[in-house]
Amino acid sequence: MGAVHDHDPHTAAPAHGRALRLGIGGPVGSGKTALTAALCRALRGELGLAVVTNDIYTTEDADFLRRNAVLPDERITAVRTGCCPHTAIRDDISANLDAVEALEERHPGLDLIIIESGGDNLTALFSQGLADRQIFVLDVAGGDDVPRKGGLGVAAADLLVINKTDLAPLVGSDLDLMARDASRVRDGRPVAFTSLRERPGAPEVADWVRSVLHSTAAVS
Prior knowledge:
By secondary structure, this protein is α/β, with parallel strands linked by helices.
């Protein structure tokens, strides 16, 4: 049921008969909201989708998704955490669970609910009680040494996305080095390199989501 969760205070919720819950986390500015938008555009024609966003005080990420019409407005819900984003996705997940369950009640038959975390550090990981699978997003501008520094988010998320690869030549980041370090730290878990400027649909990530949904359906 997703990545390893040391000291997770919540047990995994039964997955049968409900939408897959996909958490997207990562540092501020890594491209979580842009990736969420890209996945919605890529998958909305084939799946029933909804999104929960997390911001500490505002609804900025949800407003961005609505302005860009990636889904109908009523399928996008904003959570104001009022606290560290990590707390709201791992320690006290009640506000996010309420938002997810409200979406499922209003929109029966959903296939996928994306839960986007507020910006956090390399240790941020979703509770298995909130997310069935999770993606952690880095960007190359943060430095090519970030993957080898590890942290729960980098090492244990089901998919690591290294975003904004088009910026690598401009900021001096070595993508081959990042790939080697990520592979070593993640012990074989998958890594995707993306540039939403060059490939707006994030095909590598969309295909991974499809494969997860297919494998989940096969065992349910």
